[in-house]
Design brief:
Layout lengths: L1 E5 L4 E5 L4 E2 L13 E6 L5 E6 L6 E2 L2 H9 L2 H14 L1 H5 L8 E7 L5 E8 L4 E3 L2 H10 L19 E7 L9 E9 L2 E9 L6 E2 L2 H10 L13 H4 L5 E3 L2 H4 L21 E9 L2 E9 L3 H4 L3 H13 L9 E2 L18 H13 L1
Antiparallel strand pairs: 1-2, 3-4, 4-5, 5-6, 7-8, 7-10, 8-9, 8-14, 10-11, 11-12, 12-13, 15-16, 16-17
């Protein structure tokens, strides 16, 4: 691998050995400092790539380069780098090799402690200190993680989070946190990606990249009360933070759902009931007052029982839906009011 230095930022842009650099004269529109690569494909046709000296982003078309420049993505990379240097949590772990993660586990006799480990997921290596990691990288020696029985590393039930520094496709200084939570269905994993400049947290990589390109802030972006930079800024172990205790408690999928769905004040709700094969419609006023939202399950059961007890007895407040059109003709039992009977009666009276 050959690197072309960037005098502005002191960074190196890696260029593959099979790439011919500056075989042709770069176009006049290409900004200063950008690199033009020419790579020949299997068919022998040369392909041009334009590489940013700051982020290393590669493009094939002029329009893509111009869009990238107008998005000010390089400025985001430079600003993120400066912010990362001022955050102690990031600068302290700058030595961590690429591909390694921080693993945070709960431990202690009462599960009131949290422990930090350095993990290399590709080979399943887990170490406890910076010296152990550097020794493994240099000599491939693994020291045993000794916590004096305070933290169990043979299970995944006590994992609180995995922390990744400088995720791919994002500027330097960004942090990706994978949070583990216990539920009745098992262990749930949630992603949180934090920007070192604005401290906004994003739930997906696509949302983070969209923010870098457009700078738009949506409702799904938020700032954590306790940032990832402060939460895990300890050496080997520390007291379990209050915000992490609930991750060890089992919760179902419906644990956070309210008992009743909120409705706008003064709105109406139509309920369709069936009583004795008759359809009735009842209109009830729904109010979102705090007393309505805090209805207990006991009150709901009483209401359900009262509705069941009224089946077969339509109340006076219910409006019965009657069939439309003229009622069917009902024949009399004695035949006195029929047309034929009236004709016979008039004939007898005339003859008499």
């Amino acid at each position: 691998m050959r690197g072309l230095p960037n005098t502005d930022e002191g960074m190196e842009v890696k260029v593959p050995e099979n790439v011919e650099v500056n075989v042709e004269q770069p176009p006049d529109w290409l900004p200063d400092g950008w690199i033009m690569e020419v790579k020949r494909g299997d068919d022998g046709i040369p392909y041009q790539y334009f590489v940013s000296p700051v982020s290393g982003a590669r493009f094939m078309m002029k329009a893509e380069v111009l869009d990238y420049l107008f998005s000010e993505m390089d400025e985001h990379w430079i600003e993120s780098k400066k912010s990362a240097e001022s955050i102690s949590f990031l600068s302290v772990h700058e030595w961590l090799p690429k591909g390694w993660l921080l693993e945070i586990r709960a431990g202690g006799e009462k599960m009131d402690k949290m422990f930090k480990f350095y993990v290399y997921p590709a080979l399943g290596v887990r170490l406890m200190s910076k010296q152990d990691v550097l020794l493994y990288v240099k000599e491939m020696k693994i020291n045993v993680c000794d916590t004096n029985g305070q933290c169990n590393t043979d299970t995944r039930d006590n994992i609180l989070a995995d922390v990744e520094f400088n995720p791919p496709e994002l500027p330097r200084g960004w942090v990706k946190e994978i949070v583990y939570r216990k539920t009745k269905e098992g262990i749930r994993k949630d992603s949180y990606i934090t920007d070192p400049v604005s401290h906004y947290t994003f739930r997906t990589m696509a949302a983070a990249l969209r923010y870098l390109e457009t700078g738009e802030v949506t409702k799904r972006q938020f700032i954590q009360k306790t940032s990832v930079h402060d939460l895990y800024s300890f050496e080997k172990s520390a007291d379990l933070h209050e915000s992490l205790r609930k991750r060890l408690t089992e919760k179902g999928k419906d644990a956070k759902r309210p008992t009743s769905s909120p409705k706008p004040r003064g709105s109406t709700l139509k309920k369709k009931n069936k009583c004795c094969d008759q359809t009735s419609y009842r209109t009830e006023d729904m109010d979102t007052d705090s007393s309505t939202d805090s209805v207990s399950s006991e009150h709901q059961n009483i209401r359900i029982e009262s509705v069941k007890s009224k089946r077969g007895k339509p109340s006076s407040s219910d409006t019965i839906k009657r069939p439309r059109g003229r009622p069917p003709k009902v024949a009399g039992t004695n035949g006195w009011n029929t047309k034929k009977a009236r004709t016979k009666r008039e004939f007898k009276q005339h003859n008499s």
